[in-house]
Amino acid sequence: MVIMDDKRTQSGRLSRYSCSTCRHQKKKCDRRQPQCSLCQRYDRVCVYKNTRNSSVPGTSPKSVNGAPSITTAKGQPDKNGFPAVYFTDSALFWRSVGSLPDANLPISPDLMSLVEDVATVREFTEAFFRYNYPWAPFICRRNFLERILNPLGERRCENVLLIAAIKLITTEPDADATSATYCSLKRALLEVELSGSLAFRTLQALVLVAIYELGQAIYPSAYLTVGYCARYGIALGIDRTIDSFCSSKPDGSEEERRTWWTIILLDRYLNVGCPERALLIKEPSNTSVLPMDDKLWEMGYPPPNPPLVISSPPTEAMGRFCLTVQAAYLLGKVLRYTGPEASDHRILEHEVQILDSTIAALTKVTLQEGAKRGIEVCCPTTICHSARLILNQEIAWINRHKSPVETNAVMEVQETTAADMLILSHHILRTGLSGNDDISPFCHDAFYRSAIVYSQILQKSESEDAKNAIHDIKQSLRVNSHRWKAAATYLQLLDARDVTGIF
């Protein structure tokens, strides 16, 4: 029962309140008591409705953005329509509800302004699939063109979010990476979260935003967004797509699988500078399913049966993204070895040697794959170089009191890896490329660590070659900083090491 104040007009009639029960039965309503006499007599619920003032408790006022806001009797906001049972009792959810609600949310004018120019949308989507897609192919090009970009299709909020995220990642940033597009997209993602929507396309938009924040060195947002992606993906259940092979919907499961592997890659790469920080996503198993070949996927071929798994030996035929995933997997193993979980290095010494050999073998395959496709700065190669430099830095620390032979062997591995990155630096300087598909934001750490290796050589020998190598690597980072501001951040770190002498 909701109690209203008794307000009458000058004529003595009820102004705007009346008992809806009595009105429905066309009975005279005594409005001078909290519950009218007829309802008391027949033991009915007496309900009064305000037909003019929507701010009175018990009504449904409009929210700030125009969407209806349901309130309880105590005036507290009700749930947003998402079934809480999905998280509180999953067994009950799947046996009763069975599926998440299809919440086609209204598109805000702020979000719509990012993608309303058709010619511009076509331009930056073509740029995405030409330059960014090759090193992050987790969006199915065919599905995107036919179902999302198609003007005949339904315009849904999650699809508009994905298009806006593509625009963000393909736009070269100004002096401030937190542009109006970036801020508008972040606000829109928050509004979608508050609305109680869980959609796969929204997750893909979040992944693109995380890559943008990583590449533009927007911290701590990059770290937090990757954590959000991990939780979002687990909530949707796509984390299970790498654990089992689903042939019933090859297109969908392959795209979901690739999206989850991209989140794993982001989680691993974000921790290269801080190995003691715990990884968010558990280590995949040896039977985890790898992505299929990129070209075959684009052409609509079904995944191979049986599928490729983590324990499969790497080959050039696997495809570029599959090799990138394997590199991310090995990087995760390196981070676990160098992190706080590895307390007794003597027990793990044999495993470390095997891990180093495995990374070296994968590096060789990625270099062959890059040369075959004419790719100089190959994303899986630079991730392998980062992993090997981190691992051998740890080995050098463990062997610091051992014989010079063992120490020199580790230093030789580091110098060889740094020399490979120097070759890639020369390619960037020779071509002047900073935004093509070869250059991803996952290469900066390897450039940075290679410059540190040459700085250590310079400290010991005053080598002119080492000095030139440092200069060239810094120059390549400077060129790449026009596209990814994280490169400029690594330049600042190198300058700080030069001043402090910390190498």
TrEMBL record:
Protein origin, superkingdom: Eukaryota
Gene Ontology terms describing biological process: DNA-templated transcription
Family matches, as PROSITE patterns: ZN2_CY6_FUNGAL_1, ZN2_CY6_FUNGAL_2
Residue span of region Disordered: 54-76
InterPro entries, sorted: TF_fung (IPR050815), XnlR_reg_dom (IPR007219), Zn2-C6_fun-type_DNA-bd_sf (IPR036864), Zn2Cys6_DnaBD (IPR001138)
Keyword tags: Metal-binding, Nucleus, Transcription, Transcription regulation
Biased composition (Polar residues): 54-74
Transmembrane spans: none
Span of domain Zn(2)-C6 fungal-type: 18-48
Record-given protein name: Zn(2)-C6 fungal-type domain-containing protein
Organism the protein comes from: Trichoderma semiorbis
